[in-house]
Amino acid sequence: MKTSWKRELWEWAKAIIVGLLLFIVIRSFLFSNYVVDGQSMMPTLEDEDKLIVNRIGYTVGSIDRFDVIVFHATEEDDYVKRVIGLPGDTVSYQNDQLYVNGEPLPEPYLDEFKEASGEIYLTGDFTLEQLPGGETEVPEDMYFVLGDNRRGSKDSRHIGFIPKENVVGEVSVRYWPFDNFEAGFNPTK
């Protein structure tokens, strides 16, 4: 009787240890939590939204235009922004219209913010040459990112291009507030 109780306790201990190890591996290498700090991604993401960031996706896939990513902006701070320019792209804004490689691209995720703010123009005119570094195109292994709240975002217009190695991952799930829960996060709507 005593040996079966000890055996049962040992089986439970092994299951708990394996579960904890799996949790640590998944948390460290595959996914991480992120809390939005600030209003730079409104209305797509709000201050204090809680997110799950897919850390493995970019090691087997690629970063695509309009992905919402988390990256190391400084040694202390991570930012969440939208990828606008990929390596080799030219990026400019004229009369609140995004141009990538000379082609106008729609940004439907800004429509709600334009309506709510009553603003016609959210993004000031610029070309890459006018920004820090004066590059004519996005350099290799770098990205050009913008916050959706263009007037209240510190992004590539201010901090320059984002190195690929600084990308933590893509936002996959918004899980809080629960009434805004979104799995399979679609940042282009």
Automatic annotation (TrEMBL):
Cellular compartment(s)? Cell membrane; Membrane
Q: State whether keyword Hydrolase applies.
A: yes
What keywords are assigned to this protein? Cell membrane, Hydrolase, Membrane, Protease, Transmembrane, Transmembrane helix
Report the superkingdom from the record. Answer: Bacteria
Q: What class of enzyme is it?
A: hydrolase
**Signal sequence extent:** none
Cross-referenced Gene3D superfamilies:
Umud Fragment, subunit A
> Which reactions are catalysed by this chain?
Cleavage of hydrophobic, N-terminal signal or leader sequences from secreted and periplasmic proteins
Q: Which family does it belong to?
A: Belongs to the peptidase S26 family.
State what protein this is by name. Signal peptidase I
